[in-house]
Amino acid sequence: MSTNLSRSQANVVRLVWMLVAAVLAVMAIFPLLYMLSIAFKGPTEVFKSNLIPAKPVFDNFVYVLTEVPFWRYLINTFVISAVVTVVALFFHTMAGYALARLRFPGREVVFLAMFSTFLVSLPVIIVPLFILVRSMGMLNSYAGLIVPAVFNAFGIFLLRQYYLSLPKELEEAAVIDGAGYWRISTSVILPLSRPIIAALAILFFLANWNSFLWPLTVASDQNLWVVQVAIANFKSQYAASWNYTMAASTIVAVPMLVLFVIFQRQIMDSIKTSGLKG
Amino acid sequence: MTEITTTAASDRPAAIRLTTRQREAIAGVLFVAPDAIGLMLFIGLPMLLALGISVFEVDGFGGFKFVGLANYSKMWIDPLFWSSLRVTAQFTVMLVPLLYVTGLGLALLVQRTSKFNTVMRSMFFAPQMVSLVVVALVWQLMVVDKLGVLTRFAASIGLGGISFLGDPNLALFTVTLAAVWFLMGFYMLIFLGGLQDIPKEYYEAARIDGAGATQSFWFITLPLLRPTSFFVLLVSAVAAITGAQAFDLIYVMTRGGPANSTALLISYIYQQAFQYSAFGYAAALATLLVVLLMAVTVFFFLLTRGGRFDYE
């Protein structure tokens, strides 16, 4: 430690920092604990100040899962998120490999054009995108929910970056063995990129599970609702029944939080490296 | 192995080598094509369409009528447009510095590698896992008038009778707090990535020269974090202006109210398009938003002389 601090002083300083961090961290997750707490409270207990319910009940969950077609919304969301994730990874690994390794005319232009879409967020293009998708006849359809969500520059960059860092020797050996580019990409590159593909799969699934604006805009048909749209509507329907709303929120949020607890290192590492190095 | 390589390369006639090049080019184009076409169709084309649609009046049934620049001149006399622009500016001015300070502060707090800090990082990042709809609902519940847990906390420190979402002077600030809570973990990680890249020797040299922790921060950490700071400020400013996260929060928490005090430009665009079916006017507003976005990006790049950072 520092030369001008004695060992015990340094330990005290460190302890204070840890204490500050711990207090702030508990504050950071407090809203999540609060959500859980209300989800298990009966209607009369909602605004009592105790965080741990005096009489924990499951009624709110039972109500949400039986009185509302919540299962349907959950299945819709799962299917859409899974399909988007798989299709996006399939296309992005191909594009990332080509941009990193294969020489073709216009590669730099294509890369720059893709890069320029990076800062365009959905709200900016929501009106023309809606009109475009409407004219393609994809309003109120799974295709309309899925197809526009596949294309996203973020994953392409991370994959390209990753492929640039792989040693070239392995592919060169495959080229000499006479393998075509398709085979190189599926049997040499893909197995090597398992860690980043896993991290991206989690991030894509998460982003789609949590997305709200596009599903809200493109699918007004209640049979196509995703969970986020459902709980946003749920609230306006049962304005005062916060216990139901929080139970529904818990059902939606907990799977992602569990995913996070399991894969926290991969998730946080991939975001940390996506900063300026990308 | 090397022997085979050299013979293969030298024995191959020129014509075949050219074909290999061509094969590689064809494979490259085919591999990039799905993503390139998709991005062009679903991001590039809508950007152009916005410009095109903005000179039409579009009715709810998809009928187009050319109106020239009428949608643009309409903006000048639309008080709600000016109000939404002001709200967007206020939101950006609050959000960007708050995110910078909390992101960097948390990163410095949990910078040292240890088991304890890993747990802390995860806790700060956890809000990112929850959807913005859920974030909005939970915050809305916490600030319910009189009964919400934050409202009662405010009352206990002498701010009785406060209405976090009902008071037009406070609602935007409340939404900003929810946005900061959601986003701080993300920016913490970006800053942690930046801090990692600063060579430890600099700090040791400074300590030998007798610099304290404060001096090290101002003269080593901050200057060497400039690329990361640039990234964080640019991304958070763009997110704030376009309402990337704020749209969802505002849609659920306030719907732009009370008295339009939380109606961002993007909320106003959405309302014009999907509530009043004024797609032409909404497209004109969206075009203006794109211009704003480009202006901010260019400003940032000029500020840093093309994103270059002269250190090391």
CATH superfamily of the largest domain in chain A: MetI-like
Give me the side-by-side strand order of the main sheet of chain B: 1-2
Overall shape of chain A: it is globular
Task: List the total number of helices of chain A.
Answer: 13
CATH-defined fold name of the largest domain in chain A:
MetI-like fold
Question: Which bin fits the share of residues in helices of chain A?
Answer: over 70%
Stretches of chain B where pLDDT is under 50 for at least 5 consecutive residues are 1-11
Q: Give the count of structural domains of chain B.
A: 2
CATH class of the largest domain in chain B: Mainly Alpha
Task: Characterise this structure.
With 278 residues, chain A is mainly α. In chain A, helix 2 (59-67) packs across helix 13 (242-272) and helix 8 packs antiparallel against helix 9 (181-192). Chain A has two domains: 7-59, no CATH class; 60-272, MetI-like (MetI-like fold). Chain A is globular and about 75 Å long. Chain A contains 13 helices and no strands. Chain B is mainly α and 312 residues long. Chain B folds into two domains: 13-66, no CATH class; 77-303, MetI-like fold (Orthogonal Bundle). Chain B is 72% helix and 2% strand. Chain B is built from 14 helices and two strands, in the order H-H-E-E-H-H-H-H-H-H-H-H-H-H-H-H. Chain B has helices at 2-11, 14-53, 70-76, 79-109, 115-125, 132-142, 149-156, 171-196, 200-208, 213-224, 226-242, 246-253, 265-274, 279-303; strands at 56-58, 64-66. Chain B has a two-stranded antiparallel ribbon. In chain B, a hairpin with a 5-residue loop joins strand 1 (56-58) and strand 2 (64-66). In chain B, helix 6 (132-142) packs across helix 12 and helix 11 runs antiparallel to helix 14. The longest helix of chain B has 40 residues, at 14-53. Residues 1-11 of chain B have low confidence and may be disordered. The chains are: A mainly alpha (278), B mainly alpha (312). At the A-B interface, helix 1, helix 3, helix 4, helix 5 and helix 6 of A face helix 1, helix 2, helix 5, helix 6 and helix 8 of B.
